[in-house]
Amino acid sequence: MSKLPPAPPSLDELRKEIDSIDAQVHALLMQRGDIIDRLISVKQTQEVGSAFRPAREADMMRRLVQRHRGILPIDTVESIWRVIISTFTYVQAPFSVHADLSLGESAMRDSARFHFGFTVPYVAHFSAAAAVEAVAKSKGDLALVSATSSRTPWWIPLEALGAPKIIARLPFIERADHPAALPVFVVSRVADSAMVTEVEMWSVRVSGWNAETARALSPRAEIVAVPDTAFDGAALLISITRASSLDKIKSALIEAGASVRSTALVGSHATRYTVAASDAPRS
User: Fold this and answer.
1) pLDDT surpasses 50 at 283
2) pLDDT higher at 211 or 113
3) 3-state secondary structure of 148
4) How many CB atoms lie within 10 A of CB 81?
5) Which DSSP letter does residue 263 get?
6) pTM for this structure?
7) What percent of the chain is modeled with pLDDT above 90?
8) Residue-level pLDDT at 45
9) For residue 121, how many C-alpha atoms fall within 13 Å in the half-sphere facing its CB?
């Protein structure tokens, strides 16, 4: 005589399992807090600038996506981890997020809240230059500015020695339906060892900038351009990947009829990591 299949667990049993998991998650978060407390004691004043660690965070978010499975949406997982990381960074060294709202308030606010939560103070500015200036006057604050367009060359002050730099491009994980999809550069001061240099950010000032020159350069790199009528040119913010180089960019500009007036490295960030609609990671 065959045995009857085991009875499915009751709702009460399943809810108890969930309660047990919730308690374990909370306990682990408190344990993480204890470790951060010890970390603060060890670091003391050894590090200068923001406690933000873009190289480590980019790597953490990539690994999170790679190991994720199940019915829980990746949006939720990413959001939870962003709040955990940002909040624990904040308790190590308090900082504020200065956001440029000049190109639209709601998308920038969504990006700031998604990536840094509600514990980190949020300061609104009506220009990218004002947000960057506020960070320059701080010890470890962050500025969020558009990564795709600008009304002013806000990156010029980043050329100076000791100035803040571009340290990250958000979101760390990109997908078509991302709830905070606005491409944003993060500007701050961090230790050189914390930087990720997969994509270099260069400030390039040129003469002879026009539509033809822009078309010649666009297949080679991502560019934010602000016209400079005084020199019949433009101030450019150019993202240069390892597949290219500054020399190649300069050669392309010269071949297109422009002349390069100056160049300066103003930061770097991780390569864009994209997740397909099926949530299968790919880079």
Assistant:
1) no
2) 113
3) coil
4) 15
5) E
6) 0.89
7) 63
8) 46
9) 9
